[in-house]
Amino acid sequence: MLRIENHRLVGEGCSFKATPNIGGPLNPRYLVMHYTAGSSMESAVTSLCTQKPSGNASAHLVLGRDGRIVQLAPFNVVTWHAGVSAWNGLTGLNSASIGIEMDNAGVLDKVGDHHVSWFGLTIPDSEVRLAAHRNGGPVRGWHAYTPVQIARATELAELLVSTYHLEDVLGHEDIAPGRKSDPGPAFPLASVRAHAIGREDDALPHRWVTATSLNIRSGPDASAPAVAPALKQGTELLLLEIGSRWSRVEVAGPTDLEGWVNNSFLTDQPPARARSAPPVAKKAAVKKAAAKVAAKKATRSR
Length: 302
Known about the structure:
22% of the residues lie in helices and 29% in strands. The protein is an alpha+beta fold. The chain folds into two domains: 3-106 and 143-197, Lysozyme-like; 206-300, Roll (SH3 type barrels). The strands form eight sheets. The protein has a six-stranded mixed beta sheet with strand order 3-7-6-11-5-17, with helices on both faces. The protein has a five-stranded antiparallel beta sheet with strand order 23-22-21-18-24, with helices on one face. A three-stranded antiparallel beta sheet has the order 12-13-14, with no helix packed on it. The longest helix has 22 residues, at 279-300.
């Protein structure tokens, strides 16, 4: 269990290495998530703790793919992770946010049959997610985050939001659109935000798959690559974005699997076996869905 003592993170798998790249006192309002676009957690820590003639960068935390966390500065001190940025009428988010860098290669290039990082590392297909960025651009490969990394990021977001009464959990892509694309579509930012902020307004619409098998794709088109094995008949979905022919959905349950499906193969009537779901299960589903719609509303208000 993670905790914060005197603005430092304490818990299993946590360590501290001070960066010289810091500013003055910080009274944080936001949490900003990043990917390192680097080769390893260790290289990211070294870079963020080095002073460079071309300009210095830092963050409060670096989160490894194995769940390890290195803190580089106390949470009440400014670090330089946001750069030129703006949000909700505020410019320069360094002075108002806590920054988390996650070890991840970021956007990938297709070279032959493989996906390769900008620094030349071939990423296994099992670690590649094909998707279009929500700020625009084509479907391309992105380095997937590990399950333990996502779970740890969610835990960190919940702890930091509750401790410092933060207003929102953002991506670098939110505060510097067009300039930055991290943490990218491979990171479930909406889900992490929903867990951390804990808003409950109303439930997202539910749909169920009517086809024997239904592809869930990276974009609203039959030519877009599938993001997972085909969904089985009766699979429950939450509608995140409703279109005339295609809708963006999340598979109900603990998977956080998102993608696009064709509306022709959906129904608003649950299978008979699902209609008698226990009250506790229904309550949990509604609570999760409520958090999802709140996150979606927050995104649309930007």
